[in-house]
Amino acid sequence: MYQLFAVTQPGLEAITRQEMLSLGFSVHKPDPRSTESGGGVEFDASLAELYRANLYLRTPARILSRLGQFDATGFAELRSKAAKLPWHQYLNPSRPLAIRVTCHKSKLYHSDGVAERIAGAIGDSFRQPVSVVKFDEDEDKNLPQLVVVRLSHDLCTVSVDSSGALLHRRAYRLATAKAPLRENLAAALLLAAGWKTSAPLMDPFCGSGTLAIEAALMAGRIAPGKNRRFAFMDWPSYDSKLWQRLVNEAAAAEKTPEAPILASDRDAGAIKLAQANAERAGAAAYIQFTHQAFSAMQPPAQPGWLVCNPPYGVRVTSTHDLRNLYAQLGHVLTALCPAWQVGILCNSSYLVGHTRLKFPRTLSLVNGGIPVTFFMGQVPQP
User: Fold this and answer.
1) Rounded to whole angstroms, how far apart are CA atoms 51 and 66?
2) What is the DSSP string of 165-181?
3) Three-class DSSP category at 251
4) Count of C-beta atoms within a 10 Å radius of residue 74
5) How far apart (Å, rounded) are the C-alpha atoms in residues 321 and 174?
6) For 109-128, what is the mean pLDDT?
7) How far apart are CA 27 and CA 20, in angstroms?
8) DSSP 3-state assignment of 44?
9) What is the model's pLDDT at position 314?
């Protein structure tokens, strides 16, 4: 069995936990001494479930496999204990490594010194030196194997990344419009809003189409990781036949979505980008893209969900007064979408207040380094 940690954006832990439970993963409460108690979900898994986590999960950033935990108050102790970990199961000594260290309230507080001893411990285990390089999150290919070390209150947790490139990189979004939304955050917003895939979904500010595409992947039961490469594929323990069987099972489970997914934007260029991204995702047939202002939207008769990431004046139209846009959005929703569920991502409760809609549920997040809130509510019936 593997002890795994699904790293997620702070604030999304409960959503990721619920997603994992719905897929049958065995999640458990984190160690209160560990710095991993926030920012993710711990779970136990077989090799097949480790592969399934990377293949199916939509909201985490990466999946770490824990090699071990031990107390360490000195560098010699750290190196000696780390050398005893099962590195041979995960690493090829000829492949470059990247070592990421965080220290919190521990006697060993110098992260570079800790990284040096961990590299030495790996070299001790293989009886040869290893190459340590930087890990560039912006790269998708030829990434080194990432080793994550956390020291909290002298408890050292050593993990190996099984994902490689961040999981939000689904391999479909090669083109982006202004202020793009990460794929895993878009999926989390849909789950947080409680969207039922049997109900219609609209996004009248679709940009590069991420919300609509993630909705189509969810409704079509399309595994988000089926078209990309993962770090575990370079492990000595990699079972290519098992992975291919899981991918084939995922493909066999795909279906045609039951309800319409409507995406629109007043920017014709954004619509072209969104359509190209949807084609790469294999979801273009499931989304109706329209070049139009949100005021021209024509919702289906069946009530559904409207989830959107409208401009909020930080990176897009920062010199414009957006109060009228939000007031008009509220007016249009009240007139055209009675009883619809609504989710709006915005950095300003003041702007959202101009919709004159009530949002009893909120979720605080960070989008592109900007603190934002996801406002959730329902349009009243006349």
Assistant:
1) 15
2) S-TT--S------SSPP
3) helix
4) 12
5) 31
6) 96
7) 7
8) strand
9) 60
Answer yes or no: is pLDDT of 228 > 80: yes
DSSP annotation of 298: -
**Residue 34, pLDDT above cutoff 50:** no
What is the CATH superfamily name and number for domain 183-220+256-378? Answer: Vaccinia Virus protein VP39 (3.40.50.150)
Q: Is 145 helix (H, G, I), strand (E, B) or coil?
A: strand
| 270: its two tokens | 């954004």
Please give the C-alpha separations between residue 314 and each of 206, 218, 318, 337, 348, in angstroms, as whole numbers.
Answer: 17, 30, 5, 28, 10
The answer to whether 148 and 97 have CB atoms below 8 angstroms apart is no
What residues form DSSP beta bridges with 44?
3, 26
Q: In the chain, pLDDT over 70 holds for what percent of residues? A: 95
pLDDT tier, 242 (very low <50, low <70, confident <90, very high otherwise): very high
- Asked if residue 17 lies in contact with residue 27, where contact means CB atoms within 8 angstroms, the answer is yes
Sheet with 305-308, strands from edge to edge, namely: 287-291, 261-265, 201-203, 305-308, 341-346, 370-378, 361-367
Which tokens go with 53?
A: 């986590």
Quote the CA–CA distance of 43 and 27 in Å, as a whole number.
4
- Give this prediction's pTM: 0.92
Helix 183-192 vs helix 13-22: angle between axes, to the nearest 10 degrees? 80
Question: CA 207, CA 268: separation in Å to the nearest integer?
Answer: 10
261-316 pLDDT, tens per residue? Answer: 999 999 999 999 999 999 999 999 999 999 999 999 999 999 999 999 999 876 54
Domain assignments of the chain as residue spans, ordered by start: 2-161, 183-220+256-378
Is residue 36 very low, low, confident or very high in pLDDT (cuts 50, 70, 90)?
A: very low
Nearest C-alpha neighbor of 333 from the set 314, 359, 313: 359
Name the token pair of 336: 């055209």
Q: Show the tokens assigned to 39.
A: 């920012």
Please tell me the CATH code under which domain 2-161 is placed.
3.30.2130.30
Integer Cα distance of 283 and 285 in angstroms: 6
Mean pLDDT for 336-362 is: 97
> Residue 303: what residue type?
P
